[in-house]
Amino acid sequence: MSTHQHRHPKPHADRDEFITIIGQDADEVSRVYAKDGLAAKGFSILHRMGRHSFRLPEGSPLAAHIGEEAGMRPMVAATYMRRAGS
């Protein structure tokens, strides 16, 4: 008889919601978070806000807007999350 217990993910973990805001600086990201009322909707920051560079799959239509192909400098991004049922 095995005494090993398997840990299963929370049943609603796949329904958790994530929003990533990308901006030119931290102030811009914070303004979007506030304007969209994300705190009142239960979203909190998942990880610290920071500078990001973006890499896209070859041929992605987003390449014209984000990433080195568009000549964009690294941007600031923050990901916010709310748990399912919040």
What is this entry, summarized?
Helix content is 12%, strand content 23%. It has 86 residues and is α+β, with helices and mostly antiparallel strands.
Q: Could you characterize the architecture of this molecule?
A:
This protein has 86 residues and is of the alpha+beta class. The chain has one domain. Helices cover 12% and strands 23% of the residues. The chain has one helix and four strands; from the N terminus they run E-H-E-E-E. The protein has one helix at 26-35, and strands at residues 17-23, 44-45, 50-52, 75-82. Strands 1, 2, 3 and 4 form a four-stranded antiparallel beta sheet that branches. The longest helix has 10 residues, at 26-35. The model has no long low-confidence stretch (mean pLDDT 80).
Blueprint of the fold:
Elements: E1 17-23, H1 26-35, E2 44-45, E3 50-52, E4 75-82
How many separate helices? Answer: 1
Strand content: 15-25%
Mean pLDDT: 80
Radius of gyration: 18 Å
Shape: globular
Measured as a percent range, the helix fraction is: 10-25%
Low-confidence stretches: none
Termini, distance in Å?
Answer: 39 Å
What is the helix/strand order?
Answer: EHEEE
E-strand count: 4
Secondary structural class: alpha+beta
- For the record, the count of structural domains works out to 1
Largest sheet: 4 strands, antiparallel
